[in-house]
Write a structure and sequence with these properties.
alpha/beta, Spore Coat Polysaccharide Biosynthesis Protein SpsA, Chain A, 2 domains, Glycosyltransf_2, glycosyltransferase
Length: 269
């Protein structure tokens, strides 16, 4: 069985310069991993040509695609179905973020030293489109701390997720019933099905936060979907009444104007 694969979904909204930078950060890892890409629907021809040129060079080991855009969960599951029988570890990566050079090595060494852990994440560093530092976002470190934290918000940054294949044997693949909260529901399934979680107290990925980040998170429909999924997490994992208050507060923030969300995001996260 091979050791590590990084999976990434690419869709029409991705940018070629940012994708180059993201993949470049994977090429420069201190421990090398195979890279598998799934193209979700029709994308820019320049991006498609770039990906297949990288495939021919051997930098990308696999490319799959579907003609229609079916969503992130579908793309990730398509990659997972190919990876779980071949790789011991599976890492997530987004097409516009940057992995620190030591990311894969740190997570690999942690998992080798902690065979009881099924998924490990880490801290992230947010930065603007022009490269300016915004803030470091930290997460709880131990399984029990992460479970308690989950009653408020997600306990592991999806872009830092580094799975042992046992996670998917226990919890299955990403839920497809939610349009944008597949990670939240994945963590819910993991806790429900006995997976063990951890985070490493170091920045592992630099995450791009564009000016439109908060506007994209707006709208009553999206806010309602987020609230509905959060209530499912609370009920499934048996959190107390406080969790419902947090969910309601988050719903009110999500339906507020982008400027208000930006202010609260910087001060409360």
């Amino acid at each position: 069985m091979k050791s590590i694969v990084v999976i990434m979904s690419v869709y029409k909204g991705d940018s070629l310069p940012l994708l180059r930078e993201s993949l470049g950060s994977l090429y420069e890892q201190t421990i090398k991993a195979d890279i598998h890409i799934w193209i979700d629907g029709q994308i820019n021809e320049n991006i498609k040509n770039f990906l297949y040129s990288e495939f021919k060079k051997g930098n990308i080991k696999f490319i799959g695609e579907n003609k229609k855009n079916l969503g992130l969960a579908y793309s990730l599951n398509s990659l997972l179905k190919l990876a779980v029988d071949k790789y011991k570890y599976i890492a997530r990566m987004d097409a516009d973020d940057i992995s620190m050079p030591y990311r894969i090595e740190k997570q690999f060494n942690f998992m080798e030293a902690h065979p009881d852990i099924d998924v490990v994440g880490g801290y992230i560093e947010e930065f603007s489109d022009d490269g300016e530092y915004i803030k470091k976002v930290t997460y709880p470190l131990t399984h029990d701390e992460m479970y308690c934290f989950f009653k408020k918000r997600v306990p592991l940054a999806h872009v830092t997720a580094f799975y042992r294949r046992t996670f998917f044997e226990k919890a299955g693949f990403y839920p497809t019933k939610s349009l944008r909260n597949e990670d939240t529901l994945m963590w819910m399934k993991g806790f429900e099905d006995g997976c063990r979680f951890a985070n490493i107290p170091e920045v592992l990925v630099r995450v791009r936060v564009s000016p439109s980040f908060f506007d994209r998170r707006g709208g009553i429909k999206k806010a309602w979907r987020d609230f509905r999924d959060r209530i499912e997490v609370i009920r499934t994992l048996g959190y107390n009444f406080d969790a419902y208050l947090y969910a309601l507060a988050l719903f009110l923030v999500n339906i507020s104007p982008g400027s208000v969300k930006r202010y609260l995001y910087k001060r409360l996260r």
